[in-house]
């Protein structure tokens, strides 16, 4: 679906400017409780890797989240040899479109990141799809970087399922991160760079709006961009 969106981007830009952007997302936000179990306080920058459909929107949400030092779109679940957009789009690589989140645990906890992920970043009840995109590369997955993250993620899924906050069971898979491979440069900061692109306007901008509405204390207006991080390194 998005491959055709990318190829038609130039042609649709003029049309996009002529029409008002839609005001709802393909997946609606859900108000959910905070995790009963969270990671212990820690020092130093921590890493979380999550997958929830198209990485454009997930990256965009966490680039507007306070305490996030960097959020990079990429691939997880497959090998380095197949970690490119065209190959991953076949759905046969084992990769999921993912986002690597570097965060300061003194400003935001791992549990809070998961709360935002489940609430506004994607719909965790959709199996191997999100909105208009289908295939295993769009699956809901949490790639943990420690045993503690695994325990927190699994306990939170059980908590949310037990409370029946979603109309269907959560299908998010939890597994250890083997490797994360950053996506091509044109995928980075995509939501910020193309806010009027039809796919972004319909599917992803409302996610950032829901972040601002439901997680006002965690929302920042100015996104933390990959391009800015590279410029300062």
Topology:
Layout: H1 2-7, H2 9-18, E1 46-52, H3 55-63, E2 68-76, H4 85-88, E3 96-103, H5 110-121, E4 129-130, E5 133-134, E6 140-144, H6 147-163, E7 173-176, E8 180-182, H7 190-193, H8 198-214, H9 226-232
Parallel strand pairs: 6-7
Antiparallel strand pairs: 1-3, 1-6, 2-3, 2-8, 4-5
Describe the protein's architecture and organization.
This protein is α+β, with helices and mostly antiparallel strands and 233 residues long. Helix content is 37%, strand content 17%. A hairpin with a 2-residue loop joins strand 4 (129-130) and strand 5 (133-134). Helix 3 packs across helix 5 and helix 3 (55-63) packs parallel to helix 8. The protein is globular, with a radius of gyration of 17 Å.
- Number of contiguous helices: 9
- Structural class estimated from helices and strands: alpha+beta
What is the ordering of alpha helices and beta strands?
A: HHEHEHEHEEEHEEHHH
Multimeric state: single chain
Number of strands: 8
**How far do the termini sit from each other?**
35 Å
Q: What share of the residues lie within helices?
A: 25-40%
What characterizes the major β-sheet? 6 strands, mixed
Mean pLDDT: 90
Low-pLDDT stretches are 7-25
Kindly provide the radius of gyration, computed on alpha-carbon positions and rounded to a whole number of angstroms.
17 Å
What global shape is seen? globular
Lateral strand order in the biggest sheet: 7-6-1-3-2-8
Strand content bin: 15-25%
Can you tag this structure with a few keywords?
233 residues, alpha+beta, 9 helices, globular
What is shown here, in short?
The protein has nine helices and eight strands. It has 233 residues and is of the alpha+beta class.
